[in-house]
Amino acid sequence: MCGIVAYAGEKQATSILVDALKRLEYRGYDSSGLAVLTDKGLEVYKTEGQITNLETKLPKIESSCGIGHTRWATQGAPTTINAHPHVSGNIAVVHNGIIENYQELYDELKSEGYKFVSETDTEVLAHLAHMYYKGDLVDAVIKGLKKVRGTYAAAFICGDSKQVVAARKDSPLIVGIGKGENFLASDVTALLKYTRDIVYMHDLEIASMTSDKIDFFDFDGNPVQEHTESIEWNVETAEKSGYPHFMIKEIHEQATSVHDTMMGRISELTGEVMLGEIKLSNEDIMKLDRIEIIACGTSYNAGLLGKYLFEALAGIHADVDISSEFRYANPVLCESTLLVAISQSGETADTIAATKEAKTYNCRTLAITNVVGTTLSREVESIIYTRAGHEIGVAATKTFTSQLIVLYLLAIHFARINKRLDVDRSKRLLVQMKQLPGIIQQILNNKELIKKQAVRFSKARDYFFLGRSLNYPIALEGALKLKEISYIHAEGYAAGELKHGPLALISKDTPVVALATRASTYDKMLNNIKEVKARGAPVMAIACADDTEIQKYVDAVIRVPVTDELLYPVLSSVVLQLLAYYSAEDLGCPIDKPRNLAKSVTVE
Ligand code: F6R
């Protein structure tokens, strides 16, 4: 995940910027850079890879004002050219976020004569500020950003004065206040060594920072009063934004990550999904007669929902295979098959090998992944990035819900082209999707209720998760999450399978989580709940907020806000992540690093 730092003071800016950037390394990055003001004017240094590469490249320079960045690529490969800062004339910018109307701005700036050198959306910010700069950087930044749709935390400097101008919208940015020096960063961790007096910037706010002064403005240029807070956190707590574990931090980030995954890809006004990154023409899509999904673990569970969506919405037959099985099977693929490889890391050995195997059949290939520039991305024709940000906890959480979102988008896109989804239904679905971030936040606000249930059953030896149709993959994912971090044995089942064996295991000692949100199979699900209740099992249901029936049959209900029937899997996933987290927390497990597991499985 990208990181921003900035400094204005009397000390050596380069060493402070490099040190502050190193404190953001835990967030993950693939390149870094800085821009400083020296006697010669603006100087910019950037490199791929480790911050130590940047240090090696830096000459001995005198400077007391500058901006720095660690980039985690989301658009454009992780190269030196794409690394920040980006420059236009004597203005440089570092940026976290996504510019939604990039293409529009790119075209406009091109027609004004601006030349683009990188593949990043950030470059438009440098040119916009340059275009409006008439000696007042605050004014130029405001005018430029007023044209931007998207998210940003951005810091600008100009060769003309020792001043940093920063702005934020939906991406964190904080100012650190020192004595005769001031700081800026996207994450408090970067600044703790230097100051504990912090101002958290608000959305659509501009800061102008010099060594002895910080002024805040709104987007009309009016001054804004801000309050300084004193931070007590140590570095470890700060890295987790005050949460005890990365996993719970990442669970909470989902309102934002789901939003970022959708950003610029949805038009609820026209009912269209825009996935410019896929290299399949409408004719190619109409010719597809089968989708083969390959993935491992949590990504496989996402793939199972993908199968349901591709078939239900787009009318394209889909299969899902575990990569380690697929690579040694005898797959039947041809030119009209689309292989969809799902992998958050893009480095899972089995998924890469399975993709290579599939390519020998000349099928079309597409990857859904969270990391730019990985081995998997080099193997496929099209890539859709999930944009969930760097995930540190071993258990996949925000990357999973972002994978689900991409699968919805892809299925709706295919369905529109195949004329299987009319405009009105598509619009309604997309409107509901746009509301998911807010709904996820409501679930997170209710986490104490989920915690109560988790603690109540944390001493159980076995747990069962039941779901039908599109809830079945989420039952599997709920079980996987619980066993991986709490070490409680858990099974996910298609509820209709119970009678075919597993019912023998159900007793008063086996808590059952029933995914009973609204679906065409709801009544069948109620019957399955009655079956397990009759065997004495304590049942916890995940149900819709307006369900007045369910509480008659279960011991506890965790309610989720009402949405489109197709979208409940996203909401139930968040509930089950919290259930797993609080169970593991109650048992004192090492949540972020469960035994025997690694974040990226690069061996077979
Ligand atoms: C579980 C988990 C794993 C991964 C699996 C595939 O929480 O994270 O099951 O989903 O190892 O990893 P990727 O998606 O990186 O291919």
Architecture overview:
- There is one protein chain.
- By secondary structure, the protein is α/β, with parallel strands linked by helices.
- It has three domains: 3-238, Glutamine Phosphoribosylpyrophosphate, subunit 1, domain 1 (4-Layer Sandwich), CATH 3.60.20.10; 241-434, Rossmann fold (3-Layer(aba) Sandwich); 443-592, Rossmann fold (3-Layer(aba) Sandwich).
- Helix content is 35%, strand content 24%.
- It contains 20 helices and 27 strands.
- A hairpin with a 4-residue loop joins strand 9 (174-177) and strand 10 (182-185).
- Helix 17 crosses helix 20 (568-586).
- The protein is globular, with a radius of gyration of 25 Å.
- The structure holds fructose -6-phosphate.
CATH topology of the largest domain: Glutamine Phosphoribosylpyrophosphate, subunit 1, domain 1
Biggest sheet details: 8 strands, antiparallel
> Would you state the CATH class of the largest domain?
Alpha Beta
Q: What is the chains' assembly state?
A: single chain
Number of helices: 20
Record the strand order, biggest sheet.
3-2-4-1-10-9-11-15
| Low-confidence regions | none
Strand content: 15-25%
Class by helix and strand content?
A: alpha/beta
Radius of gyration: 25 Å
User: Please, what is the average pLDDT?
Assistant: 95
User: What is the assigned CATH homologous superfamily of the largest domain?
Assistant: Aminohydrolase, N-terminal nucleophile (Ntn) domain
Q: How many beta-strand runs? A: 27
Unique bound compounds: fructose -6-phosphate
